[in-house]
């Protein structure tokens, strides 16, 4: 394939990289006063990347639309679909970010630039078809995430969150690298296609250890049990807009990267990694649900909710079928809407002095002080719990259906039973907002951008969201078909 074609297929990453470099120079030249303009330009660049990815998604056939740079990168329907979710989630997070930092006068133009380079890394992660490309994209995303977590330098919680994220992230990267080195040692190549061919006949024990280490490193990135310990602390300490970002876009990128690693180079050895994924899925569902029950801080509760939802998403991967991958992508799409809506609702909770409210005591009686916000949060919590007729129910339904079709009836049954535990803490939201008396005065007005993001997310997860089932299902099936050749 010519370099011109390779450059075209990587157009989203190249465009965002060049934009990021230009905006970085503009930030150095314009100083803090340029933060708003750079944020607007970053959002515009991300919209351009969305448009490019939509066009590429339309071009992609059932298999790869094209391998770029000698097989280091693949532009296919799966990668394009994941990138659209990543870029849209990043846009939503940028829209609601500036106001949060306005109270501390801490918003700087570096923030949107970091988000832009993070998006470049995530795009590389989901399209990587070589272990080297995967690691470069992963570290590019991770390094900017560490800075975003500790962006409030004067806040000790933010500094602590950034340090914990960096130390544990470095440990996970080391584990992942060790697994990659083992796989390379036994396969003799870092290419996904070469690894699949090398292990087509037999699967050495050393290579199995490599896969286990790789899955452990990737499990950290998706906050799957038992590598979830960083999530509540980082989510609580990081600035809330950064937390909303961590819970949405990087989660899509990491999960998509995990799917591509499992279903492309190791598709022929699914029996070797399925048991690991099944354990991680069930453990994440149970630990996420039980860990959230005793939480009083809403950000920590949503962190455990994220762990819980990762468990349901992993059930789709455990099925190791095109239907399972399609169900996983559908759940990811709905999860992004539910998570962004929840965190934006949290961002809109402020006292009259502009200080953020983050505990259950702060939202008591919210239905009397901010009724529209309370009803939106009610819909989001019920959707996260998977209660029909809200759209979150369909996300759980498709992954459980895929598990049943793969003859994993016990996995589906245990997952359904464990999902009941999570309903408790979601219902606690409703009880506190609608049945407790108000104890805190809440700011009455919120910016239009916040309402726009919250309204779109609430509309998506409402019963009207079921109108998207057919087009969303068709796109997800096309994305899953990218791996049909490996299955």
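Q: What amino acid sequence fits the structure above?
A:
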């Amino acid at each position: 394939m010519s370099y011109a074609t390779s450059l075209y297929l990587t157009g989203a990453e190249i465009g965002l990289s060049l934009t990021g470099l230009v905006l970085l120079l503009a930030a150095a030249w314009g100083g803090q006063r340029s933060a708003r303009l750079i944020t607007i330009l970053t959002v515009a660049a991300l919209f351009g990347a969305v448009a490019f990815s939509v066009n590429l998604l339309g071009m992609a056939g059932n298999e790869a639309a094209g391998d770029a740079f000698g097989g280091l990168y693949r532009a296919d329907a799966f990668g394009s679909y994941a990138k659209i979710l990543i870029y849209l989630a990043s846009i939503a997070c940028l829209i609601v970010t500036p106001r949060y930092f306005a109270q501390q006068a801490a918003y700087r133009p570096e923030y949107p630039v970091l988000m832009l380079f993070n998006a470049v890394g995530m795009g590389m992660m989901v399209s990587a078809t070589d272990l080297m490309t995967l690691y470069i994209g992963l570290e590019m995303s991770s390094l900017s995430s560490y800075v975003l977590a500790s962006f409030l330098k004067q806040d000790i919680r933010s500094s602590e969150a950034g340090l914990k994220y960096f130390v544990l992230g470095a440990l996970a990267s080391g584990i992942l690298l060790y697994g990659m080195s083992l796989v390379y040692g036994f396969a003799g190549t870092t290419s996904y296609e070469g690894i699949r061919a090398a292990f087509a006949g037999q699967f050495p024990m050393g290579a199995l250890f490599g896969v286990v280490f790789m899955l452990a490193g990737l499990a950290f990135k998706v906050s799957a049990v038992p590598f979830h310990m960083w999530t509540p602390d980082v989510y609580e300490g990081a600035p809330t807009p950064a937390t909303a970002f961590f819970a949405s876009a990087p989660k899509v990128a990491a999960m998509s990267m995990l799917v591509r690693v499992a279903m492309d180079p190791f598709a022929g050895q699914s029996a070797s990694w399925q048991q690991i994924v099944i354990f991680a899925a069930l453990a994440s569902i149970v630990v996420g649900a039980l860990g959230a029950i005793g939480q009083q801080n809403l950000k920590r509760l949503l962190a455990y909710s994220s762990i819980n939802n990762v468990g349901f998403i992993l059930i789709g991967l455990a099925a190791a079928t095109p239907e399972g991958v399609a169900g996983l992508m559908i759940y990811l799409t709905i999860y992004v809407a539910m998570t962004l809506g929840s965190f934006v609702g949290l961002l809109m909770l402020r006292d009259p002095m502009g200080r953020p409210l983050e505990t259950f005591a702060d939202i008591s009686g919210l239905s009397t002080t901010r009724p529209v916000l309370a009803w939106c949060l009610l819909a989001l919590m019920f959707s996260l719990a998977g209660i029909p007729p809200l759209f979150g129910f369909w996300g759980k339904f498709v992954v459980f259906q895929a598990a049943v079709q793969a003859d994993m009836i016990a996995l589906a049954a245990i997952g359904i039973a464990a999902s009941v535990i999570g309903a408790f803490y979601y219902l606690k939201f409703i009880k506190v907002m609608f049945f407790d008396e108000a104890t805190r005065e809440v700011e009455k007005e919120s910016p239009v951008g916040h309402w726009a993001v919250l309204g779109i997310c609430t509309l998506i997860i409402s019963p009207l969201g079921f109108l998207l089932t057919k087009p969303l299902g068709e796109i997800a099936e096309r994305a899953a078909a990218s791996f049909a050749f490996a299955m």
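Q: And what stands out in the fold?
A: The CA atoms of residues 180 and 326 lie 27 Å apart.
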